[in-house]
Amino acid sequence: MDLLYEKETFAIRGAVFEVYREMGCGFLEAVYQECLEKELKAQGVPFVSQPELKLSYKGECLLQIYKPDLICYGQIILELKSVKEVAPEHKAQVINYLKATKFKLGLLINFGSHSQTQIERFVL
User: Fold this and answer.
1) CATH number (domain holding residue 27)
2) Is residue 97 part of a domain?
3) Number of domains the chain contains
4) Which helix (H) or strand (E) holds 71?
5) pLDDT of residue 39
6) Could you say which residues of the chain have pLDDT below 50?
7) Hey, what long-range contacts does 83-89 have (CB within 8 A, 24 or more apart)?
8) pTM (two decimals)
C-alpha cells in the first residue's frame, strides 16, 4: 500500500529530523519555523511560509483568513508546535485546515518533546 505523497513527506521528515538533531527541544515555535524554512530550502523542498488562504462558509467568503505555518509542494500542510504533549485540539486544528483548504495531507510536527520530534500524518 502506497502512502499519499510518500516521496515528498520523506523529504519533509528528513528536514524536520535535521532541525531537531541540530536544535533539540525547548525553543519557541517561531525558532523551529525559521530553522525548518532554512533546512527545507537547503534540501530543495519547495514551500511557502504562512500564506494567507481565504475561508468560506456555505459558499460565502469570510473576512477571516487562515495562515498555515507552511505549505510544501503546493499540497501538504505543515502545522508546527513546540509543546510537551500534542493535545486533541492540535489534531483537530490540522483536520479543520485540511477541510478548509481541500488539501489531502497535513503533518502535525511537534518539536517540544524531549526524547524526539513527533510527526503525525492526517489524510482526508
Assistant:
1) 3.40.1350
2) yes
3) 1
4) strand 70-72
5) 98
6) none
7) 83/110, 83/112, 84/112, 84/113, 85/113, 86/110, 86/118, 86/120
8) 0.93
